[in-house]
């Protein structure tokens, strides 16, 4: 449900060329759903904007979610030009495992 909220708000505000919102809550302990998300967003909105400005814009749009259920939000923001210049393998963005999960598997 939160994932869909995030996706909807971002679509309305940023008119993305590409958007991927992933719930990564299962990669963290304790496992609590709808708390950890990764957003990959490609939008012309970001033309001329610094990385900090891009992230702040997203934080403003998702202020309600960040004040409530969302604990962590990984942001990967690109202009269309930046995105098209990436190699295909660089478009797959892996998030690191939570320290608690890493300690269980090592």
From TrEMBL:
<comment type="similarity">
    <text>Belongs to the BolA/IbaG family.</text>
</comment>
<keyword id="KW-0131">Cell cycle</keyword>
<dbReference type="InterPro" id="IPR002634">
    <property type="entry name" value="BolA"/>
</dbReference>
<keyword id="KW-0132">Cell division</keyword>
<dbReference type="InterPro" id="IPR036065">
    <property type="entry name" value="BolA-like_sf"/>
</dbReference>
<dbReference type="GO" id="GO:0006351">
    <property type="term" value="P:DNA-templated transcription"/>
</dbReference>
<dbReference type="GO" id="GO:0005829">
    <property type="term" value="C:cytosol"/>
</dbReference>
<protein>
    <submittedName>
        <fullName>Cell division protein BolA</fullName>
    </submittedName>
</protein>
<dbReference type="Pfam" id="PF01722">
    <property type="entry name" value="BolA"/>
</dbReference>
<dbReference type="InterPro" id="IPR050961">
    <property type="entry name" value="BolA/IbaG_stress_morph_reg"/>
</dbReference>
<dbReference type="GO" id="GO:0051301">
    <property type="term" value="P:cell division"/>
</dbReference>
């Amino acid at each position: 449900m939160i994932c869909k909220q995030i996706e909807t708000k971002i679509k309305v505000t940023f008119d993305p060329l590409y958007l991927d919102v992933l719930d990564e809550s299962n990669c963290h302990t304790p496992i609590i759903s709808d708390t950890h998300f990764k957003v990959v967003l490609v939008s012309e909105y970001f033309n001329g904007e610094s990385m900090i400005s891009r992230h702040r814009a997203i934080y403003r749009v998702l202020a309600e979610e960040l004040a409530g259920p969302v604990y962590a939000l990984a942001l990967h923001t690109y202009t269309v030009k930046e995105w098209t210049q990436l190699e295909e393998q660089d478009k797959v963005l892996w998030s690191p495992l939570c320290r608690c999960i890493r300690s269980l598997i090592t």
